[in-house]
Give the backbone structure.
Amino acid sequence: MAPTQTSESPADVKVDTAAIRAREQVTARRVVFAGSGEPLALIGAMVVLIAIFSILNPRFATIENLQNVLNQASLPLIIGLGATFVILIGSIDLSVEGVMGASGVAFVLLSANSRGGQDTGIWAWVLPLLLAAALGLTSGLIYTMLRVPSFIVTLGMWFVGFGIATILYGTDAYPELTDDTITLWVAKITFGLPNVFWVAAILTAIMAIVLRFTRFGRVALAIGNNEEIARSNGMPIIKNKIFIFIVAGLFSGLAGILATMQMGGTSNHIGDGYLFITIPAVVIGGTSLGGGKGGMFRTAIGVLLLTILNNGLVLAGVSPSYQSAVSGAILVVAIVATAWPQRGRLRIAK
Amino acid sequence: MSLSSKLTKVVSVAAAATLLLAGCTSTAGGSSNAAPLKKEDLVFVCSVINTTNPYFAANIEGCQTLGEKLGIPVEIVDAQGSSQTEISKIQAILAKGKKAVVFVNTVASSDAPVIVDAVKAAGGYVTIWWNKPDELNPADIGNNFVAFQKHSGVDSGKCTASMLSKAIGEEGGIIALPGVEDSTTSQTRVAGLKEELATNFPNVKVLDIRPSNWDPQLAYKNSKDLIAKYGDQIKGVWTADDGMQIGAMQAFEEAGLLDKVKFVSDGLYPPTVEAMKAHKGNDAIVGETFHRGYMASAIGLYTAYLAAIGEIDPSTLPAEKRDSMFKISCVTPDNIDEFLKWDSDVAGWVDTLIANGPWDTEPVPLVAGGPEVIKPEYK
Amino acid sequence: MTKAKEATTPVLRLTDVQKSFGPVHALKSVSLEIHRGEVIGLIGENGAGKSTLLKILTGIYQPDRGTIAVNGATMKFRNPRDSASAGIGVVHQEQSLFTNLTVAENIAMNGAASKGYGTTFGFYRWGKLNKAAAQTLEIIGSRLNPKTRVGDLSFVDRQMVEIARAISVDTSKNATPLVILDEPTSLLERGETAILEREIRKLKDFGSVIFVSHRLDEIIRNCDRILVMRNGELVADRVTTSVTEDELFKLMVGHESHATKHERRARPVNETPAIEVTGLTRKGKFKNISLSLHPGRVTAIVGTSGSGREEFSRALFGAEKFDGGTIMLNGRAARGWRIPKAVKRGMGFVPAERKVEGMVGGFTAAENIVLTHPGDAAFGPFLKPWKRNKIAQQWFTTLDVRPNDISQNLERFSGGNQQKVVMAKWLNDPELRVLVLDHPLRGLDPGAAETVNEQIKAACKKGTAVILLADTLEEALEMGDDVIVMRDGIVSASYDLTVDNPSTLDLLERMV
């Protein structure tokens, strides 16, 4: 039954495949180290910033200011976790601010507030989050079913969310939360860190586990790497994408609630400005807008880097008129320095 | 935020250019000596930046009350923060054919010329509040641009600066949180602050000025950073409006400093009233200014209305009645009730406005002519 | 062999399979049988119907007529998963791995689509996953670490992962997997190919293989039986021992090979070299390389990946920088060496990554041809379209580009025909002095390869000096006047073929 061996050219026998293989293993190992260079460089950049700012103003390196920085980084981080997931599949979620507005206003109106509303207890949390998830679900459905680019869908959903917030808000007076324990909870220090940062940190850990250890997370990475292959492998692409948009909506919604608690009340504009902190932070962290590459801890580093930069510039006494230019310039330098080892021409790896 | 506002600017400039062209061709037809309009043909147009801010909500209330009193229908324009929305909605109403008497709280200064030209081309009458370019003068445009009106920002800044300084014992450090950096309103209020401190309170020192874009959350963040930077050096906090004051107070409350620091601001918004009445933070809020959205809109609309029906001839009015500044009052925890009484009877106040005319109604009579100039040393 | 075939049910049997796309009969009527333990070679020119056949086998296309039977049972493949669960796995020409995931995950991907593989409540069990992957890799004799990210692997190792994935299709249902290797070697270096071929032979022990390749020598070396396709039909089914390369070429193309032997030109004395390189160095890539190239001669450079030959050839063209050494073109030193200068001084470069670097896919073929050297078509900064089309049409005729439509976007042509257009782009320079060819025959069928080689020879005749990074050592020895061997960034040997006569083995010894 065994067919006769076909003739082999002498070359095949003599080639020392083991030697070639050994060398390839070395290259492979070197590449593994190169891969961790980027986050390390970012952390390095952060350390340099911290050192410089500490010299410029000793108050920078105090416990109080550290708590302040972590407090400020928390909401962008929470939003960033959802945004990272969305960006990992090669899409983008621009609806953040609208979703925050909708959930924030809903939360304040369902809690005990200065407009005379009754405290609905757990529903004050559940309903706004459901609303946020529904907005995410709608984005996901339109994006996957009607194949509209996520950029367009979520831009629309931004305004839908904002519109809902405006309608809920109505024209009555600015609603304030009347329960001080709620409004002061966010920034309260527990075990040395602000509560809101604990929330963000725990969520970061959960999302990192989801990305690393669940099929949901891995399929998301696969989609971001090559959707075509993922499809021909029969992966549940549509389900996965829709779920990711729901998660992103939930995180924006949670951020909206926390921002409302922090402010002690809200207008429909509670989300303003968050999108343009979050997306750059995710990208600076090293999550590629093309999808497939990145992670939750990277986003955490990116958010911290941006927060430290802005906080440090205030403490260093940089004039507000120059602050955005200075922070922009420092960012460009940091990014170039980080990307330096990865430069090299665009080429398909061989 | 910055992206969308940039976009808005581009769009509105484009819209302005188009309209200016259109305006040029129709100037020949627009006469400044048009016959008075009949009351039945009129419609009130009331354009505000958004409908959720308490001040703008009050603008709408003023328009509606005046409309009811005079028996004229009122159309509300919600600009939703966008110059483009504002302009296109006003144009849509003008195109309906009724003669429009217009009050506009402009989104941006650059909107004013476009709106004025559109109203003039349609034969309506307009009063602009708060924002216009310096070079745009009602007298140059003609009777259709009846007046430009505002409250003095410098007076507001002086008033709050003085009350804050007195509250902290006339010495020590304060921080200032202005609005958007290139806003005239914010600039004039800051100039008033600086002038007052330089003239009367030399020992009160401004530690830091951090523009916070009228955004409570940015004010919160900046306050947190400044608390980290200056700690208990901060004796007082000056903010350019009450929205930012909410954010700043939250930051100081979280740091446990609320009852050691004093706050002043402009606007006397409902949450501020609540806080003052409740003596929040050991009477943390020590000073406010009083001016009201319903008063501004009613004065503006009524001025334009008088021109429309021929009661006044704008071309013969003195300069301060075409470019006007109305009184702004200082409010303390002690005298707050004197001012809040106006809010409980808006309709009654509008009656006195109709009786006394736009320039002589308490508590906001005409006090000076514009334009308001910022002295270079307080820029 | 024949006896074994009769005795068992074929692993795969196709009966009268047909497929048309509109008026085009891609497959006219194909019937074939594949048995357990067989390695079948499938060859044919581009457009012969090979890829249509493969797509039917993998469930991407459904046949218009005919039946597919696996182990005697008739099957319908509605999608790739049906085909996979019937035991058919594919190693694609363009690799279809997720570069950002680990080896183990990629191998499990067929499984990841099915329920419960390596996961509990949606959570990965990395230990189980890695163990399963290691077992599969063991079967094909690979010692890759299942935890490595695929993006960090060399190309040949990725090919191993592809094979491992292909054989992990669904061993529970089907004891004899059928692995389709779709041009697995077209992107590999010589040494890497040897590794792969060794692994292919192992596959025979537990399954069957369909091996698709354009390299006839490889097909003969590895296969038991060879199927030849032409114009949508199977035109020959030969036992390997009874055919020669020339015969296969004729069966495929329909005519004899008219490849002319390259006329070697002796190294001239006292002639200014077209390009002379002294001590060229780039840290970590290549070191102290000196050589001179004379008009009309082909210098073939061989070496494994990592030998530095690619970086060196790119540095010559100014596409990458170098740290030290000089380049002289026609006796003049090249300073501030960058691509625009190189092009101006008469150099051309056909890159290995054709689709990325060699062409503008969204432009028409005609536009691509006059991209760098518009020649007569130039009118100041403008182009005269009628002239451009005339020039393009001439090249299309000379190079036999198919389809003969210069106004189609280049991305819609097949690889071989794209390469012809890329060649034409440089050949359109009447003053072409140096042409650097980085794997010019990569992925080309023998017909197209022959045309490209003819053009290289023609360019030499006109006095162009050619640098050739060949796919195979045989190609280097056939086309070269000089052969330079590189290892670890230095020249380890150099042969003047007008004098020396090294064997492939000699070259290999210097390479590794």
In short: Chain C touches chain A through 64 residues (CB under 8 Å). Residues 234 and 287 of chain C are 51 Å apart (CA to CA). DSSP finds 18 helices and 24 strands in chain C.
